[in-house]
Design a protein that fits this description.
356 residues; alpha/beta; Rossmann fold; seven-stranded parallel sheet; 13 strands; 44% helix; 15% strand; globular
Length: 356
């Protein structure tokens, strides 16, 4: 199977690409615009494989998309191309509307035209898998049941609204035009190769440097934290075995407050660097004004995925966090160029500005 992965140089996309190449059967075409959050260094493990190809292009560019489909003739599309940082969406929502809504529309149009021209045997196996977020469902109260596939859409940030719009487009193209789609909504990801503006890598790198560790509000906002390699395996399971037209929620079934996550990172840094002048690293925690519309809690019920496709996360949070901290400690060659170029914190909210 030849998989067209859009956004494959980003955090989750690169994990999917590495997973495909590591498995040793399918080939992958990675289409990525190479925005600030993309890093070709995340693809070192795949770059030399004869089953890997890279194309620098924007999913908003219909002509470029048509060229990629004509040249590589993919068997399926896994759409991970997206603007994804809530703080950035508050500062500049236009880019999120452009990529997440218009870009998805362009990709759907080109995919549908390609699908309609396929011979019947290939049409029967073609799939369009759109990857989304649990943020489209809005905010949960502490006592509320987790999100499931029947949860009502209630996005509360420009980012979440743009992803909700793209989800609706994908399902409309299935019901109206017959495009064989799959949709998945995942919880917060973490792990190696995540751009350092996100909570866990920002905490690690600021902790190593002795800088403030910014936490919004009181830190009680809770998230379901999913190790990125578990997510990659889930996405491929859905792509290969999911039922056309279905939505699958991907998460661990456990959520925890952000302050607990930050303290857990601090404990690992204390363990790894007991002689650091910044021990205990928890003393670096700095509470900052909450961001506008900050959702209180996200939680996922992944039972459909477990019961129908046999997937469940393999990496417990404690183990995944340990792996993640150690990776950032060991791979300054990956993140330090981003810091030098000023990519980290260009257009972040108050928390990252305090962190600088």
């Amino acid at each position: 199977m030849r998989v067209l992965v859009t956004g494959g140089a980003g955090f989750i996309g690169s994990a999917v690409v590495r997973c495909i190449i590591r498995e040793g059967e399918d080939s992958v075409v990675n289409l990525d615009k190479l925005t600030y959050a993309a890093n070709p260094a995340s693809l070192e493990a795949a770059a030399d494989s004869p089953r890997y190809a890279f194309v620098e292009a924007d999913i908003c560019d219909a002509s470029a998309l048509r060229g990629v489909f004509a040249r590589y003739r993919p068997d399926c599309v896994l759409n991970l191309a997206a603007e994804s940082h809530v703080d950035r969406s508050i500062d500049g929502p236009a880019a999120f509307v452009q990529t997440n809504i218009l870009g998805t529309y362009r990709l759907l149009e080109v995919s549908l035209d390609y699908y309609n021209r396929l011979p019947s045997d290939r049409r029967a196996h073609f799939r369009f898998h759109h990857v989304s977020t649990d943020e489209v469902f809005g905010s949960l109260t502490p006592e509320a049941a987790p999100f499931d596939e029947q949860s009502r859409y209630a996005p509360r940030s420009p980012y979440a609204a743009s992803k909700a719009g793209s989800d609706h487009l994908v399902m409309a193209w299935h019901h109206t035009y017959g495009l064989p789609v799959l949709l998945s909504n995942a919880s917060n990801n973490y792990g190696p190769c995540q751009f350092p503006e996100k909570l866990i890598p920002l905490t690690i790198l600021n902790g190593l440097a002795g800088k403030p560790l910014p936490v919004y509000g009181t830190g009680e906002n809770a998230r379901d934290w999913l190790y990125v390699e578990d997510h990659a395996e889930a996405l491929l399971a859905i792509l290969r075995r999911g039922r056309v037209g279905e939505t699958y929620l991907v998460g661990t079934g456990e959520d925890r407050p952000n302050i607990d996550v930050v303290r857990a990172v601090c404990s690992l840094l204390d363990e790894l660097f007991p002689d650091s002048p910044y021990c205990p690293h928890a003393d670096l925690i700095t509470f900052v004004a909450d961001r506008p519309g900050h959702d209180l809690r996200y939680a996922i019920d992944p039972s459909r995925l477990r019961e129908t496709l046999g997937w469940e996360p393999r990496v417990a949070f404690e183990e995944g966090l340990r792996r993640t901290v150690q990776w950032y400690v060991d791979r300054s060659d990956w993140w330090r160029p981003l810091v030098r170029r000023g990519c980290v914190g260009e257009r972040l909210g108050l928390a990252a500005r305090v962190a600088r």
